[in-house]
Amino acid sequence: MAPPLSWLLFITLTCSTLLISCTASEEDREADDPSLSLALLPCTFANLWLQVYIVYMGDLPKGGALSLSSFHTNMLQEVVGSSSASKYLLHSYKKSFNGFVAELTKEEMKRLSAMKGVVSVFPNEKKQLLTTRSWDFMGFPQKATRNTTESDIVVGVLDSGIWPESASFNDKGFGPPPSKWKGTCDSSANFTCNNKIIGARYYRSSGSIPEGEFESARDANGHGTHTASTAAGGIVDDASLLGVASGTARGGVPSARIAMYKICWSDGCSSADILAAFDDAIADGVDVISLSVGGSSPNDYFQDSIAIGAFHSMKNGILTSNSAGNSGPDLASITNFSPWSLSVAASTIDRKFLTKLVLGDNQDSISLNTFKMEDMLPIIYAGDAPNKAGGFTGSESRYCYEDSLDKSLVTGKIVLCDETSQGQRYWLPEQPPDITAPGVQILAAWAEASPLTDVPGDERVAKYNIISGTSMSCPHASGAAAYVKSFHPTWSPAAIKSALMTTATPMNVKTNTDLEFAYGAGHLNPVKAANPGLVYDAGAADYVKFLCGQGYSTENLRLITGDSSTCTKATNGTVWDLNYPSFALSISAGETVTRTFTRTVTNVGSPVSTYKVKVTAPPGLTVKVEPPVLTFKSVGQRQTFTVTATAAGNESILSGSLVWDDGVFQVRSPIVAFAPAFK
């Protein structure tokens, strides 16, 4: 029987109430569990949980930023509808760009996203932390020519902190910080700066400090100490990991200063803290930013704290060097790829640490061992030694979980354990479009706050440690960028990036079958980068054209840049026309694609010079350059050329190169055609 009309009316009114009454009251916000509130029964509980969001509002408003905190509070007031909105404002970005961090419900986040002046609102996600011989391997010896202004260079490191007592950060022979420096040292009972470490800050937007961590810029796990010393550590003789890899440890710019911005803790690196560090580092006056941190997946440029921070760094003349990520060699695994920053892959050097380990098939194995081995020991697979009395099976003991092994079976033997995670395939370079640098088995300074390993009973500490990953390659590129900047302090971030890429050493295509998708332009060569001949320069206006072509609105771009940028047909730039020091076009199976690129190079070499083009291309890829000769009459002069590339989609990757050669300088750019699987 059909229900009475009155019941239908009641149900309709009730449903309407359910749809509109989802605003959390002050009492509901304070409740530990919103499901306990009768007032919230009509709402979806998922929409009521408070979550930390980042509200990005672009460049600083004209007229200063003195009242931004009040402005942010007022915005929250409109959305939260509470007189105590200020308590939900966790941080205001007001030194180098505009935005704030706040606790919001999902509905409040949506309302904020729609407010005028807001570029994006995104969750405060956690990102993760992603060398003696390495600099010599790149042809960058200790006696390389250096500029006396190197001591004026400040490398800003965003990482897990720093161990200030390390010999790599001794300030003997250093004068006071350069006069341009505006930063500070968050000194505490357990941390002080010196004339080498001239800046130190720490960030913890969530408030509580994890157990075992220091409430200061002091490093508790070693990662930040390692990266800082790789980029700009001083010269230390007889450095080693408990006797392994003994030699002279040094950073790329030993005379440079270091500013540490501690953003990473034992539970990760929050996006809110990353942006806070960028906000400070830009205002403090760093010259290069080194960031060995990445997310689990790529995000939209302006919903990603690293891309946002790097953009505003670029606007202020600061190059950001990023780790590309440690998820390779899977396709499309790079997580830091904004064109205004430098993405760095990790590769091996000409050194391996060998410990003879003979397996059952009589094959030798490579391993790193810091224990003294008197005799050859037998080896046992952990899955064959379960602690059955403790209720464990081989499927559990294979991972060497605590108490899972039968002590009577493993005592006195080498135990082979399986890994529970995907692992980080360090022996293969990772997968950016920019450059690669040493990142495998790199020796550098370490924090003495925790044991070398997580193995129960291992209480050993070390002043230097050997680790691998793009976290280690990134500070090599950061140090090289700082080295270039010491000679060319007025160069833009794009010019420095171009210098690093176009002077990189080409890699072996037979042993690196993913080609440029594995190693970018090639292997870092700091000495050549300091004098590249020509550079592909770009500034904020060029990136705005690129972003117009990516579909960003005029309104948002004006907020981001703080100027009157307008997306029109004339400024709607394509990806392939960004003045980038490489060329790429996508192809499909059985399809022939032709693409024309326009590029402009600036002469930074010999005042009077003539460059001739040299093109190398495999079968299936044809390249035509017009004009084939570029003539310069002065330093700073610019010349424009076009590259027309035609590729047939019969191969997954076609790799070629374009070189401008004047007999002194060889300015090389990769040309790559790739199948959709590699997009």
TrEMBL record:
It comes from the Eukaryota. Residues 577-672 form the Subtilisin-like protease fibronectin type-III domain. One of its GO terms (biological process) is proteolysis. Residues 52-128 form the Inhibitor I9 domain. GO terms for molecular function: serine-type endopeptidase activity. Keywords: Hydrolase, Protease, Serine protease, Signal. PANTHER family: PROPROTEIN CONVERTASE SUBTILISIN/KEXIN. This is Subtilisin-like protease SBT4.9.
